[in-house]
Structures are given as C-alpha cells and as structure tokens.
Amino acid sequence: MNANGARRRTRAATRSRPCIGLALAGGGPLGGIYEVGALLALADSIEGLHLDALPVYVGVSSGSFVAAALANGISPTQMYRIFIDDGEEAFLKPDLFLRPALTEYYRRLASLPALSLRATLQYLRNPLRRGLLESFAILARAVPTGLFDNGAIDAFLRRLFSSQGRSNDFRELRSRLFLVATQLDTGAPVAFGAAGRDHVPISLAVEASSALPGLFPPVEIEGEFYVDGALNKTLHASLALDENVDLLLCVNPLVPFDASTALLPSPLALQTLHAGGLPVVLSQTFRAIIHSRMRVGMEKYARQYPHADILLFEPDRHNADIFFANLFSYADRKRMCAIAFEATRSRLRTEAPHIGRVLSRHGLRLRKERLGDPAREVEKALIDPRPLHPHHRRSPTVQRAARDLDRVLEHLERGLKSI
Questions:
Q1: How far apart are CA 325 and CA 340, in angstroms?
Q2: What is the pLDDT of residues 187-223, one digit of tens each?
Q3: Is 282:339 a contact under the CB 8 Å cutoff?
Q4: How many CA atoms lie within 13 A of 329 on its CB side?
Q5: Other CB atoms within 10 Å distance of the CB of residue 110
Q6: From CA 68, how far away is CA 57, in angstroms rounded?
C-alpha cells in the first residue's frame, strides 16, 4: 500500500464515522434526472451509504437542484417519486423549466423606443462616420437575456422545503451545502452556503446556480446578478475537499459523445456528427470543453488533496440515447433515469475490485449480490421505508447545535494531530 493509501486508512480509522461528500455537476433538466438515476444505483449497490445524510454536498447548475434536496433529507427514492414519477408529496411538472420569461420580454420591449431614438440620433449626427449598422447596434440591448422563466424553480423548491423536517435556510441544515453560481459582472464563482452567503434562501441559490445564459435570465440577489455556476468549473469539488472529506463521490452527467464506435439509433443514423447540423456540433463542443476542464481539475484535486479518495461516475461515451436526448424534454425522463441506473451499476461491476477497496477504507461495502443480478432495475431500488432520515426530524436549534459540535470536534482532532 502506498503512502497516500496509508494516510487515508489512518485518517478514516481515527474517526467514529467516515466523512463522505457528494459533488454534482450540471447538465440541464435531464442532467438532473441522470443524477437521480446514478444516485439510486449508488444507494442500492453500496451498503452503509445514506446519500440523504452525508456531511457535505456541492451542487452546480442542475446538480444544485439535486444536492439541495439531498441536504434536506430527501432520499434518491423520494426524488424519483417527486421529480420523475407521480410523487406523494409533489410533482415536477414537465413545463416547470419551459415557461416563457414574460417579465423579461416586457422589460426589454419597453426599452426599445428609447434605444431606437438614441440610435437614430447617433446616426443623424454623423451619418458618414457612423454607419447604419454601427449606430443601431445598440438595439441589441433590447434582446431578452433568457427565453424561460427560472423563477418557477425558486417557487417550486420553496414549497418543497417548507414541509416539516425540511428548511430553505442553509444555516438550519445539519449538513454543509454549497451551491455555486457565477457573479455576472465579475465572472467569479460564488458559493452560496459558505460564510457570508448562507443567509440567501436555498431555493434562490438553486435558481441562480442553474441560470444557463441564453435560456434563463440572470438572477438578481441583493443587487448583484448571477448565472450558471458551471461557467467557471464543472464540479467545484474543492469546496467539499476543503471540508476535509475522506471520500468524495462525484456525478457528472455530460460527457463528449464518441460517434466512431457508437451504435446510433436508426432515426439518428449519422455517419458523422457534422451531419447533425449546428445544434449537434454545439452540443459536442460544449461537452468536450467542460469535460476536458473537469479532467484537469480532477488531476489537480488528486495532487492537492492526497488524503481524500475521489470516485467519479459518468455516462458511457458511446451511448447515443444520452447524447441525442433533448435536455429540456421530460418525455423520456424514466428512460433516462434507467440508463443512468444501469450505467452506474456497470461501472461498479467493471471496477469492483478497485472501488471495493476504496469503499472499504470508509466503512462501506459493495452489494455484489445486487450488482450481479442482471434483472435488477430501478423499480427494485425504490425501497425507502424512512419518510425522512432521523436527524432531519430535529428542530432547527438542535440541528445547528449538532452541526456546530461536529465542527468543534473536527477542529480539535486536527489540533491534536498537529501536536
């Protein structure tokens, strides 16, 4: 066993329980559905793993939606019932992300007369120096900054987190939750849930983190505007690693598609992606950029945080169903969840010796009997007798006290090790 492995084993052994974190990337609404399927597979296949009761969560873009639910004690099974199937508590309607941003349309339209007058005056003052196109370029300010209204996300989550045992306040959660957005005016990442940013409602932070430019307008929070958190990094896993987690589980639903060896569905039988036109080319380009950036980040994390084990779960690059799926369509959400479920199980089976050793260092065990069952599907994993994890039944005051006690013990442990 190498030195890093020895340090990890020693660190895990000195704790009464392993410190496990979860980092979730973005990928549009179907990216979130993929993450639910992957999490169902992890919860079903790993004994001792309770994904709704981890110490640390990080969510980016659509991953912030899922991370916020988990931090509120909503298990992957409950998320399936709420977000994918006809749930007991709520139902995520297909049009939630597709409502026109009427307020943004009206506001931009109202600015058009003044902008037109300004452009006309600029042209008339010096028609020879200022061309017609240059003078009227200012009219671009009247173009809406987003097509769809992401305020519905905030409203939906506020209702979901208002039930007993849940909270829309970062400070009342027992777990640490970080939701990353990008400050529009500076381009800097902002982690809501961190000190100084934990007073912002969780639902509003999710809305900001998932505000993909062009599709959703920037989200205003205390006079500043925020857009999708994936503009800077894909996972922002360092937020969890800085919390001294021993094991970090990561799920990234977007990977480049390898068309050279893939079996494409007959309706999309393209010999090359170029034949698919601009949308396909842009999708592949976007996926390649964020995936390359994430790989660089993962290599950096391995060097900077040698004490931590990191396991990354992604789709199969040869799966045409995932690549050609419309990220904003819910017609096949159950199928997408099933694909994610099996892809994650396949990874666990294929790399069982390595993953098993990693998990065992943190008190977890692969359920090989379930992984070896070829007939095991999502429906068999939807077993969750607990309406809420016990620690989420505590009052906000007790939750804060328990969280603070955990932090004090963590600091004491680090101090004793340094003596």
A1: 13
A2: 999 999 999 999 999 999 999 999 988 889 999 999 9
A3: no
A4: 9
A5: 10
A6: 8
